[in-house]
Amino acid sequence: MRNIDIQSIKQRFGIIGNSPQLNYAIQVAAQVAPTEMTVLITGESGSGKESFSKIIHHLSPRKHGQFIAINCGAIPEGTIDSELFGHEKGSFTGAHDTRKGYFEVTDGGSIFLDEIGEMPLGTQARLLRVLENGEFIKVGSSKVQKTDVRVVAATNVNLLNAVEKGRFREDLYYRLNTVPITVPALRERGDDVYLLFRKFASDFAEKYRVKSITLTPEAIPVLLDFRWPGNIRQLKNIVEQISVLEYDREIDAETLKRYLPREQASHVPALLNSEKSGDQAFSERDILYKVLFDMRRDMSELKKLVFEILTHQPVDTELLKEHSHLFENIGQPYEPRPYQPQEQNEGYYLPMKQSQPLEYEDQKIEDIQHESAEESLSLEDKEKELIVKALKKHRNKRKYAAQDLGISERTLYRKLKQYEIEE
After folding, report:
1. How far apart are CA 230 and CA 211, in angstroms?
2. Are strands 67-71 and 179-182 parallel, antiparallel or unpaired?
3. What DSSP string runs through 31-72?
């Protein structure tokens, strides 16, 4: 086995980082490059899969041949066959001339098919023929043509799942997956995130002729703890935004947080397997539980707001005494019930952290629905009662009654219609 200088490959292709997963992926790419084997690169969107296709091409005997990168997901289904394999004049509307496809143009070179999972099934059959026999037929032609092209494919979806659902050919999958290379997500690369931040900061400082931005010691953990769902592409965009918009070149933790999306702050359980269809991933009963518990939390917040209004407005305090039972628990923090999938062993959901067991673990949906309906009804009755008292106090003068209630005269008029209150 030949000795591979991973560091020199990184410098040549502009790859930043020292994580073991990244180094291993580079090593596999360098080892397979001199061969004619088909390679399938897997990894999340924005993780840098195209860089590995360039490593494979430029370290191969085909390095002097043509290299073309194609995004299969960006080409419309009706024209992808023409783009890849070419077409004859008059083969379809708009085909005014004969056109060479990418597989003909790159004869003797390499072609990188990104997002291969988005390729239509008909085109997959044509691609399989190229991989098996080196043959293809132009759209609108019956003549078989030969080509000598090395195919490197990439995907950010699970192709085996796509095979099971009939969206990807099984024979093509195994033909492409001769040598698999997995590019790690940015969040799996540890301190590489900070190294990339510094590299991008230096690049944008030179591009915009400004001083390079730096991070305070408190901001570095914020950078490293973020999930980076958009991977390197997302990090690069954020560094560019900060480099252009911030006057202070030393970025503290609070400033950095303003540029980071807040999707991670959500308390909704994260769906880890987006390939699973809705009816398989969770049932309607599970969704109903979530909706009802969110309604209960919102109702508690509404009760707290009404209580604040009543205690600070000049209304009859006897009303609070009469309905004191409605406000007994407003000072207690509300904790939503964690979402639990019906099949615990499938592992499709990331459970929420929970410090203590919840009191309503075995509560039935019917009880929750009934309780929510009662609370809603009691609030409407309370509002109607307050309006009647205010009107009575001010002898049916809407202007003063509205001021006393803390609402506009127009809102009061609408409430009178809603509750059918006669003055």
Report:
1. 26
2. unpaired
3. HHTTS---EEEE--TTS-HHHHHHHHHHTSTTTTS-EEEEEG
Question: Given the DSSP bridges, would you call strands 67-71 and 144-146 parallel, antiparallel or unpaired?
Answer: unpaired
Do the beta carbons of residue 270 and residue 351 sit within 8 Å?
no
The helix/strand/coil state of 122 is helix
Tokens 């003063």 appear where? 400
Single-letter residue type at 59: L
Calpha distance 219→27 (Å, rounded):
33
Burial of 4 (0-12, 13-18, 19+ CB in 10 A): middle
Tokens 């609108």 locate to 140
Residue type, 104: E
Give residues with Cβ within 8 angstroms of 397, minimum separation 6: 391
Tokens 């409605």 -> residue: 326
Question: Whose structure tokens read 């397997």?
Answer: 273
User: Helical H runs in 313-352?
Assistant: 318-322
Q: Are 92 and 140 in contact (CB under 8 A)?
A: yes
Q: How far apart are CA 347 and CA 272, in angstroms?
A: 8
What's the distance, CA 75 to chain centroid? 22
- pLDDT per residue of the chain (423 residues) written in tens, 0 to 9: 466 899 999 999 999 999 999 999 999 999 999 999 999 999 999 999 999 999 999 999 999 999 999 999 999 988 999 999 999 988 888 888 889 999 999 999 999 999 999 999 999 999 999 999 999 999 999 999 999 999 999 999 999 999 999 999 999 999 999 999 999 999 999 999 999 999 999 999 999 999 999 999 999 999 999 999 999 999 999 999 999 999 999 999 999 999 999 754 334 444 444 444 444 444 555 666 566 767 776 677 666 667 666 666 555 556 556 556 555 555 554 444 444 444 444 443 344 444 444 444 444 444 544 554 444 456 777 788 888 888 888 888 888 888 888 788 888 888 888 888 876
Look at strands 214-215 and 110-114 and give their pairing.
unpaired
Looking at 115-257, which runs of residues are DSSP E strands?
Answer: 135-137, 144-146, 150-155, 179-182, 214-215, 250-251
Structure token digits, residue 171:
């024979």
As a whole number of angstroms, the distance between CA 46 and CA 283 comes to 32
